[in-house]
Write a structure and sequence with these properties.
The protein is α+β, with helices and mostly antiparallel strands. The protein has 2 helices and 2 strands. It has a two-stranded antiparallel sheet. The longest helix is centred in the last third of the chain and has 10 residues. This is AbrB/MazE/SpoVT family DNA-binding domain-containing protein.
Length: 85
């Protein structure tokens, strides 16, 4: 366990090994929660915004030879099929 000292402004330095292990970089947001006399710190990792094109052709429905049904596009069914292979 590492011990740090709180500055006059209430600041502490997070040890480098902990920052590396948790991916804490300048601008990373931390959430503080008080649990009795314990402070819990949670790292909030920003998730990059995705666009609709990033999922293009991830799942394809087999040609039905006629009208397509909504069931032809069931992602959960296709994922289960992929897992069972």
């Amino acid at each position: 366990m590492t011990t740090v000292t709180v500055s006059d402004k209430g600041q502490v330095v997070i040890p480098a090994s902990i920052r590396r292990n948790l991916g804490i970089k300048p601008g990373t947001e931390l959430e503080f929660e008080l649990e009795g006399t314990t402070i819990r710190v949670n790292v909030r990792h920003n998730v990059a915004q995705s666009d609709i094109d990033s999922g293009f052709l991830m799942f394809r429905a087999k040609p039905s030879g006629g009208k397509r049904r909504l069931a032809d596009f069931d992602v959960a069914v296709e994922m289960a099929k992929a897992r069972s292979k």
